[in-house]
Design brief:
The chain is of the alpha/beta class. It has 18 helices and 13 strands. It starts with 6 loop residues before the first helix and ends with a helix.
Amino acid sequence: MNPPDLPEWRTLAERRRALDAVRIADLFDDDPQRADDFLFETPLLRADLSRNKVDSGTMLALVALARACGLERQRNDLLSGAVVNTTEGRPAWHTALRSAPADPTAAAGLQAERERFLDFAEQLRAGGITGTVGLPLETVVCIGIGGSDLGPRLVTEALGPFGRPRVRFASNLDPADLDAALLDANPHTTLLLAISKTFSTLETVENLQAALRWFKTRAPELDPSAHLAAVTSHPERAAALGIDSTRVFTFPEWVGGRYSLWSACGLGIAIAHGRAAFGELLLGAAAMDEHFAQAPLERNLPVLLGMLGVWHVNFWEAKTRAVVPYAQQLRHLPAYLQQLEMESLGKQVDRAGLPLTIDSAPVVWGEVGTNAQHSVFQFLHQGTSAVPLDIVLIAANETSGERRAQLLNQYALAQADALAWGDRLLGEEARPSYRAAPGDRPSTLIWLPRLDARSVGALLALYEHRTFVQSVVWNINAFDQWGVEIGKQLLARRAQAPGA
């Protein structure tokens, strides 16, 4: 299937031409109900799509394209555990980690491993797990990279301050990263948690070995095995490094790294915030799974957001898209979405191995609001290209007793209006060209009711499904990442070369 050959694609190309001379402000002028008509809700989140250059007919045409590309069938395959990652011959069944699968054997196995790592987290939180000299382990250093780091790090910080054990993260091969994670840690009360699907990722193995040397230097009397735990799909490799099998937690091979925070890879989240919070995180994601599975495509938020992305990339030639969360605790969201979207969608061939004839993944970037307003918003308002923008807000800020929290949302809404209408909102007086803000720049508002585990789970599942929707239309495999491998292979050659 070549998407541009579909009649639904050609219909959208015609609608794009018809909207060429139309401004976002005109769409509001023509439809007094637009703000209400373009507000979409799920059980946990809502999104305002009205500030995008799209009318109701175009939204229906986008949904028609999704249907023509077989979205409903492919969605059902994804959610039922069918083989959708064709180059690796496996499912991408991460939804089974939070929405119990129909297969009772699979469900029981996943539940048993979840209980095992959550029990470990609770024991650690209660001070029941001690190191060599009998002191409770009070600092946990999570060592991983990519999906083994970005998702757990994002959620751990998103859920707010926590006490002990202290949970820290180290991912970069640069020694400064691990040094910072171990700063002021007491080796007698420190646990190293190595997280790696294959347990052969160079950065993770090297950082783990460096941390073990830190133990040996600081406290040579310690038994390292009392200070180690691991999460992997290959427990035998963790055991080969001397990690006690009772502290090795596993997840299925079909869980991709960027979808793994729902598994034992999220152990750091459970240690920081507890079993109940981790359960709420899963419930929020499961609610979004159900919405994605059952809501009509015309009201299905992951579908609509995904198709808006197709609209921007393929019909308005957007090369980048920005994400700005107006919540400091979500400051890692742009980096998390960079991996989710660019690793999933950054492909040059379709499912048949044929070269793509259309653009796929845009560059994803962003910064936390309000910091972004004093840096990148200059580019968003006056740059030479219009960049689609997601603005993530917390509704509870509006009733907060803290003035700064209230101002966060007011700032976000002001920026969304400025992007859509430009400086015409300030009056009709003429402005020098260097001050002019033309507006007519798209943005989407995504509202979380509050910044809690259930809302965060729903938000991340929303973006997962949004990404999948785009992969269906672009006819690409969203679940492999062969481009990541070439650098690893060349590094291995260099490391083995004489004199290396």
